């Protein structure tokens, strides 16, 4: 069909000269302009809505009496890798919850595989039913203080810039580098001026925030208080309210859900695993929660769709109106937000639709190249005075730098279970230098055993926590045998594991298998005494910077310890 013929069909079906391809009859749609529930047929031609507020005949007519139609939801910032499944399985897992567009940053796989990881995501985005849009990872490696699997200078990003699935430059995490005009940061920012540049600036304020925004950065998902968010909104940022499996900012940012502010907010998950999606939901969970806390449905649904679309330049979606993309969710009530039917670009979402997708070959199946370790590798020599300890903050990805006098055995510093202080180690797994660092962490609750993972933000080396060194060694070495994933060990026995062979980050199994395995893994971790709601994702974020006060030095680096690790 030619473009002219297609356009003529859209007009003819919109005017009623010929029957629409699909007509939803008997329901109401939520008008995000006026806030009204409007009784109306909804006519669809191909991938586009062509009629509302009128009666239509259709080649296919679907009775939705008693139900409400809202625009498809848009997740404005996430790392699909953190769902632990491939983009194809993420599509199948999340689209039935009404998420018809996902704006992803393949930051995790890019830090392992570089350009090959980005190509894998772009290839996958071309085959999924959900519209997956990609932002090009801006921080690979995330820091010079870690060993990453890849390096993506601006020259390696530019060939992807005009790909039809690419929106712009992904979250610019190195905000000190922006403020102090680091040459590598400047080259990337200059190359993407005029396009979308995503932000990442936790707690940044005042003139430093002004300088950061002057570089053309427009969005931020790292706000943890309404006060922080309001300053950024006043300065022109679009705030992406986050509720993931670890980072949970929704309740703190509830005051933003007003009709006045709704054009400047959107929703995102950042990192959410299939178990939480199964038990709670995805963006639909955020919508339900916000309305249950007394927020106006108009503000909440705007944030979930039209406001998100406008923030990222997706001008074709976000309203139930003629000429707009037919991404639609049929729900029971605005308050309950249970998707009973979903349309993605005019296609009703069914198992058969997923079955017809083009497969994409996995990548990075040999990316775990860590050396074998022994219990002795986890020894920490006794030192004078206090020992640095990473302090886990439940429900947050940031950690605290704490110091304690720890007990000793012989010439070795040991764990202190009375104060919930156990060992932690990071082991380089990309096969570059074999580096190994040991330290201590407080807040996991473990009384025995060990937990290990190849999902370790941002460089995705092996991270292992444990009470006994021999259990830590067993867990870390097992990760090499299963080509990456999570492992739980108790008293010399592997009591739970999940293989994540795609770059050491994603499973090759259906999301249902991953969901059920995570349920077993969580129980295995709890049997060790873990008190964290999400011990595996908390472990994945443990290697992130310790940033207590955000003191930025004239060198453009955060003037605090990067890790509370020893060695």
Helix-strand layout with pairing:
Elements lengths: L2 H13 L4 E6 L2 E3 L6 E3 L2 E4 L2 E4 L6 E6 L4 E4 L1 E6 L8 H8 L4 E6 L2 H7 L1 H11 L5 E6 L17 H4 L8 E7 L2 H5 L3 H9 L4 E4 L6 H8 L5 E2 L5 H9 L3 E5 L22 E4 L5 H6 L3 H10 L4 H8 L1 H6 L16 E4 L7 E6 L2 E2 L2 H5 L31 E6 L6 E6 L3 E2 L2 E2 L7 E7 L8 E7 L7 E4 L8 E5 L2 H13 L3 E6 L2 E7 L11 H17 L7 H7 L23 E2 L1
Parallel strand pairs: 1-6, 2-7, 8-9, 9-10, 10-11, 11-12, 13-14, 14-15, 19-24
Antiparallel strand pairs: 1-4, 2-3, 4-5, 7-16, 16-17, 17-18, 19-20, 21-22, 23-24, 23-26, 24-29, 25-26, 25-27, 27-28
Helix pairs in contact: 3-4, 11-12
Account of the 3D structure:
The protein is α/β, with parallel strands linked by helices and 567 residues long. It contains 17 helices and 29 strands. Strands 19, 20, 23, 24, 25, 26, 27, 28 and 29 form a nine-stranded mixed beta sheet that branches. Helix 11 (283-292) runs antiparallel to helix 12. It is globular and about 90 Å long. The chain starts with a helix and ends with a strand. Residues 546-567 have low confidence and may be disordered.
Poorly predicted regions are 546-567
Average pLDDT across residues?
93
Distance between the amino and carboxyl termini: 65 Å
What form results from the Cα inertia axes? globular
Strand-residue proportion:
15-25%
- The number of helices is 17
The largest β sheet comes out as:
9 strands, mixed
Radius of gyration, whole Å: 24 Å
Helix content: 25-40%
Number of strands: 29
- Would you tell me the structural class of the helices and strands? alpha/beta
